[in-house]
Design a protein that fits this description.
By secondary structure, the chain is an alpha/beta fold. It is built from 15 helices and nine strands. Helix 2 (63-76) packs parallel to helix 3. The longest helix has 23 residues, at 3-25.
Length: 355
């Protein structure tokens, strides 16, 4: 074994040990993933999201912000930065931010509406490691949910253009399943296939938190625009069963990211609002392995929990390892915390898992 291989192995073992220590002590020693929101605005007007309603109050991360993060990211051994939003590509310095991170040896992933993929294809291939696009239905339904005419075609054209330049480039899709599109679920899978996406994943809609720019949590009338009605739940079960029966090969191959059980958990989530079952248990350690930095510099333990500091006031390392932050992680009981119980997603990385 050469010297370089020995150093690489030692670094990997050290990082794994630090991840174990983080889980044991609640003091962040290693932070594999950081989510950045480079731009607060969005170029879609989705029915299940309120981000676009605050487009006039623009906030964005700067080159100074990201360079200021590097010492903490290096200290924590951060391996991946996920660019979220808003629409990250609206930040005019987006690729400068990516370049800073990539030159520091950090992988960059992008979550995007996909409307401008074609315009940025060459730079995306160069500076972004992989892309996750939002896919809400077949063409007509996708455009309706996004409230943007031609959104589906722009997404499709962008994916195809990237494929023409770099056939093996990884592009996956994420779909929020809710009252307006659950009946179109199979068409979504077929659309993902036709676009030659590498994978498609599904999650239920968050209708109860302050995330996605909700200054106040949605009240029941607004919730029920997205939340399936009790009478629609049997139809949801039927659609999920159709997918399990008809797309088992795609589940087994990983093209559909969720297992049969996780697909059925989408039903369980909606059924829980009517007291038919508990909310699905989610094995999650997001606050110990990741953090979210918003476009104004605010830091959250995850998308759904409260702000704990701002990178324009203190370093990320100082914020995450303040006495209050450590005590919050130490006392967080995900089985009883109201935010965690109703959470629609989860991130669980064991210390041995490689990104």
């Amino acid at each position: 074994m050469g010297l370089h291989q020995k150093v690489t192995m030692l670094n990997a073992l050290t990082h794994t040990y630090k991840r174990y220590r983080t889980l044991q002590t609640h003091h962040i020693s290693a932070l594999p993933i950081v989510i950045l929101m480079p731009h607060s605005a969005c170029n879609c007007r989705c029915v299940m999201c309120d981000i676009w309603k605050d487009n006039k109050n623009l906030k964005q991360l700067t080159e100074v912000d990201v360079r200021g993060l590097l010492s903490s990211l290096k200290q924590f051994g951060t391996q991946q930065v996920v660019m979220s939003g808003g629409e990250a590509l609206l930040n005019q310095n987006f690729f400068t931010l990516c370049r800073i991170l990539r030159n520091a040896g950090i992988k960059v992933s992008l979550l995007t509406t996909g409307l401008t993929l074609k315009n940025h294809a060459e730079e995306l291939i160069e500076w972004v490691n992989d892309i996750v696009v939002s896919l809400d239905g077949d063409e007509q339904l996708h455009d309706a949910i996004r409230n943007i005419p031609g959104a589906f075609q722009k997404l499709k054209d962008g994916v195809q253009h990237i494929r023409s330049l770099s056939p093996n480039y990884k592009i996956t899709a994420r779909t929020v399943i809710h009252r307006l599109n659950f009946w179109n679920w199979i068409a979504i899978i077929e659309a993902a296939k036709q676009m030659q996406l590498n994978q498609v994943s599904f999650l239920p809609a968050d209708v109860s938190s302050h995330a996605f720019n909700r200054q106040i949590a949605w009240e029941q009338p607004r919730q029920h625009e997205i939340l399936l009605s009790k009478n629609e739940l049997p139809k949801l079960v039927a659609v999920i069963q159709q997918i399990i029966d008809g797309y088992q090969d795609n589940i087994d191959s990983g093209f559909i990211a969720e297992s049969q059980q996780k697909l059925m958990h989408i039903y369980d989530y909606y059924a829980a609002f009517y007291g038919l079952n508990p909310f699905p248990y989610k094995k999650c350690n997001a606050p110990w392995v990741s953090t979210v930095i918003e476009a104004d510099g605010n830091v959250r333990p995850c998308f759904f929990h409260d702000v704990i500091g701002n990178i324009r006031d203190s370093s990320l390392a100082t914020i995450l390892n303040s006495d209050d932050a450590i005590n919050w992680r130490k006392t967080l009981d995900m089985s009883t915390n109201s935010t965690c119980v109703k959470c629609v997603c989860s991130l669980h990385l064991s210390p041995r898992i490689k990104l």
